[in-house]
Design goal:
two-stranded antiparallel ribbon, alpha+beta
């Protein structure tokens, strides 16, 4: 889901995000991949680095790893350092899987409802 910066502090991009990325060594806390790596994932999901711009083998797509600063408690209005972590797109998707599944179920149950309806987080 795209980020809506109107719900974030004004210094999110300039101060908070860079600080959290630096704190975590500019690497995903889950899998250890670094920001902006170029490569592809094989059929098993393993990431393989490639020289920048080199195409992936036939049948695979090359891309950049983009790190996300994530809300660990899923409380999107808590921007404290203790609630922020760093994950690549894949790990972030796995981490938020139960939340996005709840959102999809809500949207399917109530057609026309906002896909971003606020849902109570139950661990």
């Amino acid at each position: 889901m795209p980020i809506d910066y109107k719900d974030y502090p004004a210094d999110w991009k300039t101060v908070i995000r860079p600080r959290i990325l630096a704190r975590e060594g500019n690497k995903c806390q889950c899998c250890g991949l670094g920001n902006n790596l170029w490569g592809y994932r094989d059929a098993g999901g393993k990431f393989h680095s490639l020289p920048e711009g080199r195409p992936a083998p036939a049948g695979f797509k090359a891309f950049h790893i983009r790190l996300n600063v994530v809300h660990l408690s899923h409380t999107l209005d808590d921007h404290s350092d203790a609630n922020l972590g760093v994950m690549c797109q894949r790990c972030h998707g796995h981490y938020d899987k139960h939340i996005t599944a709840q959102q999809a179920a809500y949207t399917n149950k109530y057609p026309g409802a906002a896909a971003t309806a606020v849902l109570e987080f139950i661990p």
